[in-house]
Every structure is written in structure tokens, then in C-alpha cells.
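To whoever picks this up:

The nightly regression suite flagged Radical SAM core domain-containing protein as changed. Nothing in the input moved, so I suspect the structure step. Input below, exactly as stored in the fixture:
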Amino acid sequence: MRGCNNFCSYCVVPYVRGPEVSRPPAPIIEQITRLAADGVKQITLLGQTINSYNYPAGDKTYRLADLLEMANEVEGVRWIRFITSYPVDFDEAILHAMADLPKVCPYLHIPAQSGSDRILKAMNRRYTAAEYLDLLAKARQIVDGIAIAGDFIVGFGGETDADFAATVELVKKAGYKNCFVFKYSPRPGTRADDKLADTVPAEVKKQRNIELLRVQNEISGEYNK
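Regenerated output under the current build:
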């Protein structure tokens, strides 16, 4: 699928790629079948918000769980992944597909971006830190041995030491296998660039980036023992 409907305040994707558009399932499965015939073993389904996959066809609307089930039937494919997911309106059927379909890898990449509810609101993420952690708990309850990855932006406009401390706390609670951390930089044309001053000094952004990666590296070290 292509595009995004979420309009996070820092993100340019909805402006340059437009609204979400889901490809029909038939050509997707045909493409996977061709790749498998050429010897490809791992398939990754891509979308800015892949869990929003939605394709109406007659009396049926295909969602991501349906697409995973169809891909699971393709001969020759051994592993199926999907990225990236958005925490709002995450269909529980996706988790059951991960648990039940042998080719679907138990790996969920689901960005949080911040652990501070104040910053999440400024980012227009439309969920709280507690709601995000509840989703991770549900994923672990349904999918045995699931590995979870997250994304974070540090130094977003107005982020205080307390906001950053909340992000560190969320990372500790989330128990990620790995996470990706980025220093905030304004994107022209976005709401954040228009409405929020880039108030966090570059050196502070750098130190917060280093600290969050240090915390995650400790967690990853325990995870991989």
C-alpha cells in the first residue's frame, strides 16, 4: 500500500505520497508467487501504515490478516514479514494471523515515537503511552515469543527533560528486541515546522539519542542472552 492518512505533525509523507491506497490482493499474491518461483524465500509486505491495509472487493473487504493468510499459502515462501504498523486501530486479527500462520514471522515493528503523552499529542499521534503499552501486552499475550521493535524521535520541539525521562521509561517497559532512534529535524511544510519552534539544542538532541540507545542496548543484551 502507499500513502498515509495520519498526518503526524512532523511527517511529510501524507503531503508527498497522498492518502492511503491499498493494492488489490490478487496482483500482490501473483507477484509473491513469481518471486517464490524465482527462489525468493522471504517476503516483506510494505506500507507506511501496513496494518491499515483495506481493499473492498464485492461483498468482502480484504484486510492485512487476509493478505497474510493468502501469502502463507504460496508454495516456496518460507518467511513473511510486514512493516510498518501504526498503533491506532490495530486489528487484533493481525496478531492471531501471526500466531496461527507458520510462515508469518513473530516480529512486530510498531513505532511509539515518544513516551510523553504531551509530546505524543503535539506529534498528533492519537494515542497515549499507556495505550501503546497495552497494545504491546496484547501482542505478547496472543503471539508466543513475539519480538517487538520501536521507533523514537528525540528532541521534538518543546521536549523537556521530563518528557525525555518518560520516553526512557517507556523503552524500559516495552522490552523491545531493538529500536531505532532519530534526532528531530523539522520538515518544511509540516505542521510541526509551521507551528512548533525547534527549541531543543542540537547537543541535547545528540545526548538524548545516545542515552536512549544506551538504554535499549542494555535491554537488547538481556534479550539476546
